Amino acid sequence: xxxxxxxxxxxxxxxxxVLAVWAARPEIATPEVARDFSASLAFGLAHLAEICAExxxxxxxxxxxxxxxxxxxxxxxxxxxNLKGLDEYFxxxxxxxxxxxxxxVAIAPAAGISAH
Length: 116
Description:
116 residues, mainly alpha, single chain
C-alpha cells in the first residue's frame, strides 16, 4: 500500500515521498539531541550489514536482499528536494482538512548530516 501511495504522490506532485522522519518539538530539538540523532544514523549506516544479518534471522527474510534494499532504496537525507516533498504533502493534507494548517518544517541546529 505504501509503495502505491508513494508512487501516486511522486507522479502527481513530481516531488519525493518522505515516508519517515525523526521529529521533535522545537523546545526539545536542541543541538545535542540533533547530534544524537545524527550519530545514531551514522552508527546504523556503519553497521548495516550486522543489522541486516540479525533482521534476516528474526524476520526470516533473505539477508542480501535486505541489505540491498536498505542501501539502494532508502534515501536517509532530508535535503531541499525531500523537504519540498514533505511540505507538499502537509499542504495537500491541510487543504483536504486531514490536518490543521502547519508551518514550514524547520531543521534542528547541528542536524545537518546528510547520508544516502
